[in-house]
Amino acid sequence: MSNKHKIGILGFGCVGQGLYDVLQHNQLLEIANICVKDKEKERPLPATAFTFDAQQLLQDDSIDLLAELISDPKEAYLLVKQALLEGKTVVSANKKMIAENLPELVQLQQQYKGVLLYEAAVCGSIPILRTLEAYYSTEPLKEVSGILNGSSNYILHKLDTENLSYEEALHQAQALGFAETDPTLDVGGYDALHKICIIAAHAFGVVVPLQKVLRFGISRVSTQDVALAQAVGARIKLVASAKINNLGELEVQVLPTFVFPDNELYYVHAEFNGVQLDARFAGSQFLKGRGAGSHPTGSAVWADVSAALAGYKYTYPKLQAATTPVAADATLRVYLRLAAQNGELPNLPWHEVTSFGVNSQVVQLVGTILRSDLLQHQQELEARGAFIAQLPDELAEEELLRAAIATELVAA
Ligand SMILES: NC(=O)c1ccc[n+]([C@@H]2O[C@H](COP(=O)([O-])OP(=O)(O)OC[C@H]3O[C@@H](n4cnc5c(N)ncnc54)[C@H](OP(=O)(O)O)[C@@H]3O)[C@@H](O)[C@H]2O)c1
């Protein structure tokens, strides 16, 4: 009798094939079967390696572990739920599915004694969840933030270094396989939102409702915005953050941000991801690596497969002890550029606002506003093609205005 562990793979796309490749280096695992969907697709393996019926894998009791790597979050949820209800061991890379169903997935593991690991769902090859779960299980964290979406970072990097337009950079990202044909989840900031909410559960023990998190993406960024950031010595990065504020409450957001050279994120280029941790006693740490791609993500799945088969599971120590409230609100200082309507400023409840570029087509301003007010007006701003970026406290407003005027980056 073979003493190899048998695994079943659901999905044989970018990540499924990556897992298949890396498993060729593991003599102790045997792939029992691979489930795919499209009967017409050409495959690099013989037809006998595949099934089109997921139940064949789910009902095979000789399989020790299922790797859920399909692209359909709704179907993935049903398959993972069924497996957990039967107390099985599952590894998944599906951040949307996990972020949308986390409380239930935790409860199912506890009730039916199944196991679900999902390191590959957050920042590909960067071992952030295991670090938070196992190493920082007790030490309080002050902040976890980072560049969590490789496609957006690739696009921003190309705008910054090669002066490409947003559309040109997006096409490049798609041609290289960094961005989906429908890039909305990536460039709209949703993918980073899913990841930061999963991180927040492990880092702070708080499940934050996705719809309550302020999220703007990069789909409206222009070469003008990038040049303005350069003029003050910054780069625009899509930063997702979860941090404890002065009142001990958790603040979570996903926002394009002006990032300066004193910040590690400034040096995270192209499709790479970077995560900063700030722990109360350990201080700050930084992890950088490939956040997506076939082999890097396959490697993260492999690490989870090996860990799960060795008996590792998430114990959600901070979720069990959670006492941290979610912040009711916060004040943000932002740069905003949007399509003009009769040259008028958008009717938002600004605390302070200075418009510095106004013509018949474009309005540019710097303003201070409550996060809840931005959240409330998000749809309206997005409909007007708004690009919004957070400005760090160190950047004086006058400096931004001076740089904008000096480099003729204001709409006149
Ligand atoms: N790509 C990355 O770099 C990356 C990184 C981290 C996490 N992820 C996550 O990993 C998962 C897979 O992504 P991917 O990039 O590998 O996707 P992909 O390249 O589009 O491949 C998806 C695979 O899922 C299969 N599939 C879709 N619906 C199915 C169903 N109902 N039943 C059985 N099989 C089904 C497809 O079958 P066919 O082959 O028949 O079409 C295909 O093999 C997603 O959740 C994604 O968010 C991806």
Keywords, please?
412 residues; alpha/beta; Dihydrodipicolinate Reductase, domain 2; Alpha-Beta Plaits; six-stranded mixed beta sheet; 16 strands; 36% helix; binds NADP nicotinamide-adenine-dinucleotide phosphate
Task: Give a quick summary of the entry.
By secondary structure, the protein is an alpha/beta fold. The chain is built from 15 helices and 16 strands.
Describe it.
With 412 residues, the chain is an alpha/beta fold. Among the domains are: 140-289, Dihydrodipicolinate Reductase, domain 2 (2-Layer Sandwich), CATH 3.30.360; 331-406, Alpha-Beta Plaits. It has 15 helices and 16 strands. Helix 3 (73-85) packs parallel to helix 4 (95-112) and helix 6 crosses helix 7 (166-175). The mean pLDDT is 93. The chain binds NADP nicotinamide-adenine-dinucleotide phosphate (NAP). NADP nicotinamide-adenine-dinucleotide phosphate binds at residues 10-16, 35-38, 41, 54, 69-72, 75, 93-95, 120-121, 124, 292-293, 297.
* Low-confidence spans: none
What's the alpha carbon Rg, rounded to whole Å? 23 Å
Count of extended strands = 16
The CATH class of one domain is Alpha Beta
**Which ligands accompany this protein?**
NADP nicotinamide-adenine-dinucleotide phosphate
CATH architecture of one domain: 2-Layer Sandwich
- How is the main sheet built? 6 strands, parallel
| Alpha carbon gap, first and last residue | 78 Å
CATH superfamily of one domain: Dihydrodipicolinate Reductase, domain 2
Strand order of the largest sheet: 3-2-1-4-5-6
Q: Please report the number of helical segments.
A: 15
Quote the average pLDDT: 93
The helical percent reads 25-40%
Secondary structure category: alpha/beta
Sum up the overall morphology in one term: globular
In CATH, the topology of one domain is named: Dihydrodipicolinate Reductase, domain 2
The fraction of residues assigned to DSSP E strands is 15-25%
